[in-house]
Amino acid sequence: MKPVLKTPRLTLREIEKKDIPELFELIKNDWDLTRFMLWDPPSDISETYFRAENKNNKDYNFIVFNNKKIIGRISIREIDYTLKSANLGYWVGSKFQSKGFGYEMLKAICHFIQHDLKLKKITAEVFSQNIASQKILEKMGFENLGLHEKCIEKNGIWYDEYCFELNLKK
Length: 170
Prior knowledge:
- With 170 residues, the protein is an alpha+beta fold.
- Helices cover 26% and strands 38% of the residues.
- The chain has an eight-stranded mixed beta sheet with strand order 1-2-3-4-5-6-8-7, with helices on both faces.
- The two termini are 25 Å apart.
């Protein structure tokens, strides 16, 4: 059974094919959002579908709803049950930012990772310019492990990123 996570304002569930059109509408022209992503806004719906696919069936790709409207996405990837670790990727559409949704969805997903997946360590990487995302991770208790200089290339420009880690306790 696919997990469904609920918070006071949000519902997180695995992405389904029926979500793609609404997801596409949310991100298709959102350059403010994608400036901190490895990808640019999709030019057509097929690109959105490609990014939404769970290619290895090991990741968890959650779509995030507020009042039945898609506002973002969060993925658990690189799950290693031997090392009890995973990596997170997440975003909130620009028009839904600065409302506490990022923190709320991250809190729900960290609880799921700790209590359902029984993992002990979560990592996340953030573009060095993405101050809001860094603040959310720090508020959640993630430790900034340091800067990787010029490690991400996007559209011919090299960017720095910070690596964060959260060690979970039982």
